[in-house]
Amino acid sequence: MDLERIRRHYERLLEWLVIALMAVLAVEVTAGVIYRSLGESLVWYDEIASILLAWLTFYGSALASVKRAHIGCPEVMAFLPPAAKLAFRVVAEVLTIGFFLLMGWTGYQVLGGLVGETLVSLPTVPVTWMQSVMPISAVLIVAAELVTLPRVLAKCMQPETTQPAAITGGASH
């Protein structure tokens, strides 16, 4: 199985994970609204909604990483010669991967301090399970960076065929 095929499968997996989280969050929020409109309240609604939103954010970031959809400066990079683009990209990748490895390690260490803690509204649910999103998403983001790295580095070595959008007014021909 080639790396591009692995990347596509990984992207699909993350898409389904994000879609599932969005669906669960939508159902949970809808249930909370319905219960409140009936004068009742789900004691766990707010806590679970905020956790699901955090999970959606972290796992969505992993999806954005595999799609290479995070904020960048393509116009600036377009002006650089291929060797400089490659150098900047390598530095950016090392910093990004290093940051997420550190975040994953720190998130893992934090889990150790949370052992025995439970959610306020659902005392049977351990906080460690909910907070596991940090180290898990960090690993997913590092994997996304690594699986897309060869394609990104190869693209750096190709000369630009069109002028950057900033010069052409946003349209490339």
Task: Describe what is shown at a glance.
By secondary structure, the chain is mainly α.
Q: Keyphrases for this structure?
A:
173 residues; mainly alpha; 7 helices; 74% helix; elongated
Describe the structure.
By secondary structure, the chain is mostly helical. It has one domain. Helices cover 74% and strands 0% of the residues. The protein has 7 helices and no strands. Helix 4 packs antiparallel against helix 6. The relative contact order is 0.13.
Tell me the strand percentage band: under 5%
Assembly status: single chain
Number of strands: 0
Mass-distribution shape: elongated
Write the layout of secondary structure elements.
Layout: H1 3-37, H2 45-67, H3 74-78, H4 82-113, H5 127-131, H6 133-156, H7 165-168
Helix pairs in contact: 1-2, 1-6, 2-6, 4-6
